[in-house]
């Protein structure tokens, strides 16, 4: 379960068993147009062996958060505040040399587009062997053998020969497999997968998702899985965090968030998504408007300009006062628990047939 | 074409026209054994044609008046090429495309001109398909200018009407595309396609570049347009759920061939081709009730789609199929109504599956890595 406290000071106690814990994270970028506040006061925890699914639209801050965990932002243009603890180690203030020891070793990342994330200049085998050599001090030969073993494990046929190939000689699905092999080569405790299957075809996506699930069982890594596809999240994650305009708006276990969602944005996502089993008589109900610009985000609740239920709250609370996300299960919304329950059962659920 | 231009009242409330057209069921577009091969050049110093990418290899399909026809398949299966052949952005290698009984497969520019205005296209990427140096008004009135159409009340009035139909502020006709978001740009693309009162719109992945919450807006808009104006759609997409939502009939493509075609229910509830089964079972679904998932079959294919330069002999799916035998390698299965199929439901398979998507006694896992990992676990 995700347990969360708002006070950064509490993190030691609350995050006692959390392997990764992020506290009150703020990330902003300096751009020509002004300061983009990409992440605002985000907190979450992740235990070993569990998968946290982060779902949100483009610009919701989901990728920015995870690049921050690995320290991959250019410090020249980025301001980061808050606390990120990975197995007790503070990462925001960590030196580059410490992060280097960590990246690819304790924490690894799988990127969306394997063709741009792999180097076209080196063979696939060498790219997989390199982090293993660097982090374990293995010899070139041992590392190569390990790379071949990993390629076999992720299902590349004839791994001995294919390790000598360059990325362009691989198909899209195989490149993503090679990237998974590279991420898992040092047996990381934390795996961050940023839209790993978005660029793939649906039958290949199903193979890769199942492969990740099975490998997680074997390696016991914690996974942060970022996607915009609720179907993929439902398939992969134990816990879900829904992000909107740089902050978390709802969190809970997969069952809680998908079967009894509590935030109007989550309702909107579920209602606007066509499913194979949905009733064709009911039209989709899109969320009105467009996601806000993070240069000049709306005041109060960031979802209020697109929210249908603002009137139910009454007064100007939605415009003035940002709602807090309660610790653990819950949604950041001013509606009362009873209102949420009634709206979901009377208005949202009937449309989810 | 002048008399074809409708006034605003007709454009917004032409339900009668749409319903009449839909009821007729007459074929609007007939595609017969359409083939497109792209030559592959190689060799030095004289470059010769050494092979061909068989992007589309003999497909037949019919789109009726006012109907929405979905074309699904994975990347490289030839669905976009098919769309471009039908709009004649590409020249077919062989085969026949007839629009309202007229053969347009090799029609010249001049012969095509009157038909071009009846077949319009909506593109995938709303960023690269609009000219950044033209105002929205110019973009939408462009087709009218080219075809020399002067609607009553002037082109500007018509542009405003179109903007209103697609749900944009008509006052924005003087703005440039960069001032709009992705979803709004796609609406501009729809308005441009509607400018000439087309009979058929080829929509090539019209929503796949958009965010989930915006996708639904555009899908609803297209559905509205289809219903109100009675326009036939060839809806090309890889997202099976979106196609199911939008199309009355659906064709599934694999490596340049249509392997199964039928009405929506036949394809989604009673598929017969193993590939259709695999495709449907691979769609990740949000399980809202709890027990639904247990009823869906699980099929995990091995590897990727083979190269269309040297596709497998016989049935093209055989290299990834769990039922393939010698017969599949030597004999190409014809696209026919096999026993057990409803009317209009055609399947190209020697050994079709049961018409259900329910869970099987045993999952089909062909991926060697998955099978190995699951073996040790189980």
TrEMBL record, chain A:
It is found in: Cell membrane. It holds the Pfam family ABC_tran. InterPro entries: AAA+_ATPase, ABC_Ni/Peptide_Import, ABC_transporter-like_ATP-bd, ABC_transporter-like_CS, Oligopep_ABC_C, P-loop_NTPase. It is a peripheral membrane protein. GO terms for cellular component: plasma membrane. The keyword Glycosyltransferase does not apply. GO terms for biological process: peptide transport. Keywords: ATP-binding, Cell membrane, Membrane, Nucleotide-binding, Transport. Its main location: membrane. Residues 22-270 form the ABC transporter domain. PANTHER family: DIPEPTIDE TRANSPORT ATP-BINDING PROTEIN DPPD (PTHR43297:SF2), OLIGOPEPTIDE TRANSPORT ATP-BINDING PROTEIN APPD (PTHR43297). Belongs to the ABC transporter superfamily. This is Peptide ABC transporter ATP-binding protein. It comes from Streptomyces colonosanans.
UniProtKB/TrEMBL annotation, chain B:
One of its GO terms (molecular function) is ATP hydrolysis activity. It holds the Pfam family ABC_tran. InterPro entries: AAA+_ATPase, ABC_transp_ATP-bind, ABC_transporter-like_ATP-bd, ABC_transporter-like_CS, Oligopep_ABC_C, P-loop_NTPase. Residues 29-280 form the ABC transporter domain. Keywords: ATP-binding, Nucleotide-binding, Transport. GO terms for biological process: peptide transport; transmembrane transport. It comes from the Bacteria. The keyword Coiled coil does not apply. The keyword Coiled coil does not apply. Belongs to the ABC transporter superfamily. NCBIfam families: oligo_HPY, PRK11308.1. This is Dipeptide/oligopeptide/nickel ABC transporter ATP-binding protein. The lineage of its organism: Bacteria, Bacillati, Actinomycetota, Actinomycetes, Kitasatosporales.
